[in-house]
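step 3/5: co-fold with zinc ion
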Amino acid sequence: MGQRSGRQERSKKLELALSETMKAGTEVQNNKEEVEEPKAKDQRPTSVFGVADLKNGAIGLYNVGQTCCLNSVLQVFFMNIHFTGILRRITVPPHDAQKRRNVPYQMLLLLEEMQCGKQKAVSPLDFACCLSAYQVKLFVQHDAAQLFLTIWNLIKRQMKKPELVEDLNDLYAICVQEHLACQKCSFETKRNSSMLTLPLPVLDSNSRILRTLEDSLQYFFRPEQLTDHNMCFCEHCGRKTPFLQSMKLVHLPQTLTIHLKRFCFKKSAYIHKLSHYLPFPQDLDFSAVLTKNQCQADDHEKAAWQYELFAVVAHSGSTSYGHYCAYIRSMTECQWYCFNDSEVCQVSWDDVKCTYGHSNLLWGQTAYLLIYMKKHPRSLT
Ligand code: ZN
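step 4/5: write tokens
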């Protein structure tokens, strides 16, 4: 009980610090028009738009029972200054019960605790408990791609301000155009859609290994013939005909998440992990990887498709028993770190390359999520 009240007291302090930070954040936003209250401005913490404060050593997250996946996904969110810039502008829920169930608010509390504290690591337990109200079970190993999507959607749904929802979308949403063309009469339908990750295969349809990330990207955007039992009904022909299905890339966001589909669902319920070698580059130019037919974008848009690797969420072990950690390149220091629960250490690019994978290494780390960051934000191009 004593511990519980201690925690509550600490939360109160954080809330105070938080509301100060957010007040300051609003001032920064409006500082073009408003010059009043210079005093409050001076009190603004220097870390308003910062990442988890690396000057005091990067802060780890304790594993409070199978939370290595959650910890890795959280660190990727927190080290992204574009994301934390949005998170800091949320509206604080008025009531305690709402606060406990509000995912973006709890995320912000945790970020503040990481930045304000002097500890080498903090506990994500309150945040994990908040997620458990939304069917994200505690003390269970999750899938990082699924957990990223779940958390992202909860944040989006619970952010009250429409402009924040728009900013969050802009930061992560990949826009594509799906084409379906009848091969008999050339009648074509197009549909725009967006997604949060590019789910890239690591094998082709004949179970052959795709050799590089670029090959995998090419394969994902290849046109596909829909024949035999896959034929579609054509309105013009009035019957089922063969179709050509393709997906074209329309727009890429600032933060691009690639999901390497290394967990393979074979015929039965048995999930198989594909650990083979698949290298990925630090610098990636999408306009050079994809052909003209695979894009539906003008030159201005394509000029912004220059990316550099920001983070790798790596998985080691088997599907039934494994461990996650995250390699993240600090955006302020340009230095790679490995976030392994409460342990955080500086690493080199060669260490990150160890996550390329190897067929014979059951316990070796393999990259599962790759997060690329646009080199030049669109407004600057
Ligand atoms: Zn037709």
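step 5/5: annotate
Residues 1-53 have pLDDT under 50 and may be disordered.
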